[in-house]
Predict the structure.
Amino acid sequence: MTPARYSIFSLARNALGYHRNWPRAWRSPEPRPSYDVAIVGGGGHGLATAYYLAREHGIHNVAVLEKGWLGGGNTGRNTTIIRSNYLWDESAHLYEKSLKLYEGLSRELNFNIMLSQRGVLNLAHNRHDLKELSRRVRAIRLNGIDSEILDPEGVKAEVPILNTSPSPRYPILGASLQRRGGIARHDAVAWGFARAADARGVDIVQNCEVTGIDVAGGRVTGLETTRGRIAAKKIGLVAAGHSSVLAAMAGLRLPIESHTLQAMVSEPIKPVLHSVVMSNAVHVYVSQSDKGELVIGAGMDGYNSYSQRGSFRIVEAQIGALVELFPIFSRLRMLRQWGGIVDVCPDASPIVGKTPVEGLYINCGWGTGGFKATPGSGWAFAHTIAQDRPHALNAPFALERFASGRLIDEHGAAAVAH
């Protein structure tokens, strides 16, 4: 029997048996009484941190604690966009590190993350947009990152189905383009890091909610969880959306707000959109998945919330914006909608580093841009935990910047929430 025929019969047999005999990609261990490092949050950033702790720093006695299922938070609720075209040097270096890691991640993890570097376009609809994009492109290129400006003809050549006529309320006057940007499969990123971390001895403990952080003499000693107390020499908090809740357990108050960020997908159609298209003016962004669905997002809800539902107003606005840019999509039906909880700092940049509590480290505040930073964030955060000092990449993103005033204002680069 040929390998292909064997594979087909194996798939059919396991499907009929509800996959009971499939080997597990990673273990499901009971938590041990103590660990050298405990990572709170089993999303992409937490799993990447655990993986790089083991691979780069030889720390294998690590637990990743997830209150639900692996990747069930924002990792499974984002729109899969990756890019590094950020304005300020500090952001550009960190996101570019992440993008370079993404480019080799399938090979490194031996797991296909379905990386598609199809290009990311940011549209300009007026003269101010064009000047701002030109400024950003020049700053981005000074940091050695690919970025270019397209005129309307260039935009039309990249995305023929865009409405580039002069008649719309928001005519398209040009765009910036990062050709190395694109999308990756969010589940695959989490699964790849989980399998690789597990293979290096990391315990991934699901359905284990942290209910308290034990602090004695100014340093952490362990965690209280729904599966018992777990002692730990070092603790990394990597739980998007609920970071401020966890930090409060250790007596810390963070400059963080949590909001709902919504997205939706359409029914699948034949391939018609081969780039990621974003517009801040009409406020929508869209890409097409490998299954043919349009993945559509827009701005986050303005009110503070831990809900994963969102409001109809945002849905209505982003559909209107989509049809403004792509009249061809006006008759599409939407399949499903969801919301994720994002935590946002005042300067729209993350907090990655140490805290005033010894042995407690925090990685949060990524707002709407966390997925694209996953491998770079985990790499830098692992260094910070292992060495008890930040790496040069994440040193500017310390909590202390809110006292010193050295903020990294990336509201413009965040553009449409994504």
